[in-house]
Structures are given as structure tokens and as C-alpha cells.
Design goal:
Elements lengths: L1 E2 L2 E2 L13 E5 L6 H9 L21 H4 L2 E4 L11 H12 L13 H7 L15 H13 L5 E5 L7 H17 L3 E6 L2 H7 L2 E6 L2 E6 L1 H9 L2 E7 L2 E7 L2 H12 L3 E8 L2 H13 L3 H8 L4
Parallel strand pairs: 3-6, 3-7, 4-5, 5-6
Antiparallel strand pairs: 1-2, 7-8, 9-10, 9-11
Helix pairs in contact: 10-11
This protein binds adenosine-5'-triphosphate.
GO biological process, one term: response to antibiotic
Organism: Sphaerisporangium album
Keywords: Antibiotic resistance, ATP-binding, Nucleotide-binding, Transport
Length: about 290
């Protein structure tokens, strides 16, 4: 993607599989929104190949669009509508695109229950709380029972309980409905908890791609093992945690207690990579993560 002489995405190569939750993680201006807008067909790419559900988004028709769910920023229109009314109304659009295997739209009551808004079915949208409105946004993204769901910073403004509920919801969707989910987030904790895979974007390039554990392991290669032996506490930084623990038990057996194995956290990896990238050493970061190798 190029604006004028400025390349804001370069060589971005990624695949999302059916039923997979992929988090696009990166600092401000990394190119996350641009990437998903190209995939959604909202933005025309300057060059490169893109296929979404088998179709080039630049040429996607209504039937193709009906298979996508998009959750952008909070839904501000239709403030006087009641939540259930709006979902009923939006659902009509998807009805012609239903199949026996994937009936469209979602039943409104079922959908409201899924996002935890059953009690607000008759509430006027303007009177929903911020978190409730965001849940409604998600319901709007889901009403067509999408094969692929885009979530742009889905949990901004959620309290911890709403966030946990939302995480459960995303897990259920990818598991039960086989919906592929592509979400952008700044929240490392969220990326780690929610996604099967993380693609880290920095400066318009993919600098890392893998599961949270893989990224942490590839970057540092180490894990921290804590344990007690005969009441004395130890902390070791080791390359092969499984082997180390096996050896530990083989040697000391029941004398070992309080075992804890901690991977370097994703946030440590993330900060190190972004810093490395910003200091111009991103090729070193690529080598470390194996991306582009
Ligand atoms: N219409 C545009 N014209 C020129 N440059 C743009 C345009 N839209 C985005 N950009 C630039 O593209 C880059 C990537 O922006 P993008 O919004 O995709 O980043 P992001 O990772 O989503 O950031 P944030 O986390 O801040 O939302 C930024 O440098 C931005 O300034």
C-alpha cells in the first residue's frame, strides 16, 4: 500500500485459516487498520495479491460481502432504535445468502444471548452503556453469521468482566461456528489470550508471526523455572524447560515442590521487537523470529 511516495505496507504476506483467530498486533501507525481495510474491500491496494474467501476484495460482490462480518468503531447511528429491532432490520439483508449449513441471519434472540444483551433487547441504543454498545457492535458484525469476522480493536473501553465475556465469546465463535477471526489490538494480553496466532506489524512490515508461545520462545529461547527443593527456593533461566524439569524430578523426585515454569511474556517480546525495529535493526528481529527466512 502506497500513499504518494510513502509505502505504508511492504511485503505483507499472511494467511488466515478457517476457524482460526489471528491477532494483528502492532504500535500506532504500523498498518493494522490499512491491512484489514484492504481485506474487507474498503481500501484498494496499490499492488500485490489478495484473496479473501476465494475472491479479490476489489471485485467482491454482495454475496461475498454477506459472508464477512465487520466490527469497526462503535455504532453511533440509529440511536433511537431498540437493540433487537436494529438486529432484525440488519439481518434482513443477509437472508438471501443463507444456506442450510449456515442459516442467515442469526436469530436475534439467540444472538443477543450470545453477546450477553438479552436484558437489553428492548433498550433504545442511545441508552446502552459503552460496553453494552460495543457488544451490540459485535452482534451487528455477527448477524449475518460470517465465515470471516474482522474486529478492529474490539475491547477498547470494556471493563474486565466484559472483556472476559468477550474473550469467551470469540473462543466460542471460532470453535463452534468455525468462523475465522482477524482482530487488531494494542492489548498484548488480549492477543496472547485470544489468538491462535499473532502477526506483529511494525512500520508496515511483518516482523514476527507465530503463536504467543512460539514468539516468546523464538525471541528469547528461554523460560524461567522456579521450584523449591527441601524448602529452599530456586529460580533458573533455561533453554529447554521440559528437559530441565524432567531431569529435576529424576534427580530429586518428591523433594521438589512449588514448580512454576514461566515463558518470557509476550509483552516483553513485543516491546523488545518494536524497540529493535525502531532502532533500525529489524532485519535482526526477522532472523530471530524466522520470518522471511
Ligand atoms: N489516507 C491516507 N493517506 C496517507 N497516509 C495514510 C492514510 N491512511 C493511513 N495512512 C498512514 O498509513 C500508516 C498506517 O496507518 P494505519 O491506520 O493502518 O495504522 P494502525 O496500525 O492501524 O495504527 P493505529 O494503531 O494508530 O490505529 C500510518 O503511517 C498512516 O499515517
Amino acid at each position: 500500500m502506497r500513499y504518494g511516495a510513502n509505502d505504508v505496507l511492504r511485503g505483507v504476506d499472511l494467511r488466515v485459516h478457517r476457524g482460526e483467530v489471528l491477532a494483528l498486533l502492532g504500535p500506532n501507525g504500523a498498518g493494522k487498520t490499512t491491512t484489514i481495510e484492504i481485506l474487507e474491500g474498503f481500501r484498494r491496494r496499490s499492488a500485490g495479491e489478495v484473496s479473501v474467501l476465494g475472491t479479490d476484495p476489489d471485485h467482491g460482490d454482495e454475496a461475498w460481502r454477506a459472508r464477512l462480518g465487520v466490527v469497526l468503531q462503535s455504532w453511533r447511528d440509529h440511536g433511537r432504535w431498540r437493540a433487537a429491532e436494529l438486529l432484525d432490520h440488519l439481518g434482513l439483508y443477509y437472508a438471501p445468502y443463507g444456506t442450510p449449513a449456515r442459516p442467515r441471519p442469526y436469530d436475534t434472540a439467540e444472538l443477543l444471548a450470545l453477546v450477553g444483551l438479552t436484558g437489553q433487547a428492548g433498550t433504545v441504543i442511545a441508552r446502552l452503556s459503552g460496553g453494552q454498545r460495543r457488544r451490540l457492535d459485535v452482534a451487528i458484525g455477527l448477524v449475518g453469521r460470517p465465515d470471516l469476522l474482522f474486529l478492529d480493536e474490539p475491547t477498547v473501553g470494556f471493563d474486565p468482566v466484559a472483556r472476559q465475556d468477550f474473550h469467551d465469546l470469540v473462543r466460542r465463535l471460532s470453535g463452534l461456528e468455525d468462523t475465522a477471526i482477524l482482530l487488531t489490538t494494542h492489548d498484548l494480553d488480549e492477543a496472547e489470550k485470544l489468538s491462535d496466532r499473532i502477526v506483529l506489524l511494525a512500520g508496515g512490515e511483518i516482523v514476527a508471526d507465530g503463536t504467543a508461545a512460539e514468539l516468546a520462545a523464538r525471541f528469547s529461547g528461554k523460560a524461567e523455572v522456579r521450584y523449591s527443593r527441601d524448602g529452599e527456593f530456586f529460580t533458573e533461566s533455561v533453554q529447554d524447560a521440559t528437559g530441565y524439569v524432567r531431569e529435576l524430578f529424576a534427580r530429586h523426585g518428591e523433594a521438589i515442590g512449588d514448580l512454576e515454569v514461566r515463558r518470557v511474556s509476550l509483552s516483553e517480546v513485543y516491546l523488545a521487537m518494536v524497540r529493535e525495529f525502531e532502532s533500525g535493526q529489524h532485519h535482526a528481529a526477522r532472523e530471530l523470529t524466522g520470518v522471511g527466512a
